[in-house]
Amino acid sequence: MTQAAEREFVPGQQAPKWALSLRLEDALLQLSAALRNAVFYGLSHSVTRSCIHRVSNELEQLLAEQSPITTHILDDQILYGTLPLCHTAGTLVPLAEDLKLRGVDSLSFVAGLETREMEAFLETLAADPASLKLAGGISRVMAQKSIIHIQVAEENLEDRPQSQRSSVEIYEDAVDTIKRTMTAVAQHGQIDAGQVRQAVEEMVALVLHDSAALLSLAAIKGWDQYLYQHSVNVCVFSMVFGCTLRLSEPEMVDLGMAAILHDVGKIFVPEQILGKPGPLTDAEWAILHSHPAMGAKMLVSTPGIPEVAPVVAFEHHIRHDYTGYPRLENLRPLHPYSHVVNIVDTYDALTTVRPYRPAIRPEHAVGWMLYAARGHFEPNLLTRFAAMMRMYPVGAVVRLSSGSWGLICGPSKQDPARPVVRLIVDPRGTIIQARRGISLAEREPDGSYKYTVTDCLQPVSRILPITEAVVR
Question: Residue 191 belongs to a domain with what CATH number?
């Protein structure tokens, strides 16, 4: 707030809109922190309850001056009237994305808000987005919990054509399609490329309209249909990733078909190997390692399949540093789509329960990929994927809650999702000569993190050109 602006504000009068917006932003930051703690620790944890108490007090004071207070969610921004709440340099983006993911277009607070309602609202926001959709939407769930003084307006679907199907229907049909495809390959050695293309094109249309809907469904992991759901999930994440790479719609269809069919060769691997809870023998590893070549052979002879699909099926386990399989006698550049599917395939596999290991939390999976295994992945694309998943790559410059600026330099031992930062500028803007590293995994006595990232400057990177595929 400038000195001139401070002189214009007269105590006892209603605060101007810009002043209310700053206080509202503080309250929403507390709400965002409360939501994160509710997800990690639960509503009853002392850290969460402390956040709930603070946000309730902040909103109570604001609502005593003005009621209702309404915000709108536009992409990854929260607006108060026409004023974007951006004073804290992007720290509200996760909250905006959480709200948008649950179909919220606007969020209003009304005088009389009770702590009980805030707790119930946080419990609703912490629920899986797909579960909220299946329960009739966030408004209906809030009404069932008697949340009166917090109100949401959901996305208006009245203009949606009657023929357009829901995201749940599109996702489930894609799983059924890939299941039928795998069965047909096993029984007859044939693929209906038309059916696969139709499923992918429908998902591309939904990704371009509402990627959050499919991403939320892809986050629900099933045990009994792992191979089919994994194929569809890799397809969904690859296409959403393709959006961030500015692929055209036809390119996204080709990428989607390559991604959904990347593991088609696994249909030739016995189930006792795929689902074995213990270590594989050398002979079993040899059989598993044959699936990329088997899948590529099947796809290359199938009419209607994009040329890139057998390339991706063959290359998606080779890895950027060529330490994967199958081994290449003559090293050559891998197709950019293979790099994309390699990243997404690894992420989805890590975040899914398997017979031989538990699932890894999404932020831990991305952290491991970024810091511990970054040589396996094309670095420019991995940086973009991490940014999409709101993680911080090595080399990124970040601002901390202390006001200092630092450089991400590697993983912490305690938590792969919270890296080590080398401080470079102190809160006063003075360059730090003896640069020391601090771990973002450090905690206060009450369990909260000692340092958090409030802003991030992504390192400039050159993205690989996405060129037309050539089968080699």
Answer: 1.10.3210.10
User: Alpha carbon of 328 to those of 180, 233, 319, 336, 345: distances in Å?
Assistant: 32, 28, 11, 17, 20
Q: Cα torsion at 376, 382, 386, 391 (round to 10°)?
A: 60
Q: What SS3 state is found at 397? A: strand
pLDDT, tens digit, 9 for 90 and up, residues 311-353 = 999 999 999 999 999 998 888 999 999 999 999 999 999 888 7
How many beta carbons lie within 10 A of that of residue 438, not counting itself?
17
Same structural domain for residues 255 and 300?
A: yes
Q: What is the pLDDT of residues 153-171, one digit of tens each?
A: 886 544 444 445 677 788 8
Tokens for 472?
């080699």
Do 352 and 453 fall into the same domain? no
Q: CA-to-CA distance for 178 and 201, rounded, in angstroms? A: 14
Domain that holds residue 439: 392-457
Whether 336 and 403 map to the same domain: the answer is no
Instruction: Answer yes or no: do 279 and 415 share one domain.
Output: no
Residues 299 and 191 sit within 8 Å (Cβ to Cβ): yes
CA 354 to chain centre: 21
Tens digits of per-residue pLDDT, 192-240? 999 999 999 999 988 887 666 677 667 666 555 778 889 999 999 999 8
426/398 same-domain check: yes
User: Could you tell me which residues come within 8 angstroms of residue 295 by beta carbon, excluding any fewer than 6 positions away?
Assistant: 261, 262, 263, 264, 265, 266, 310, 313, 314
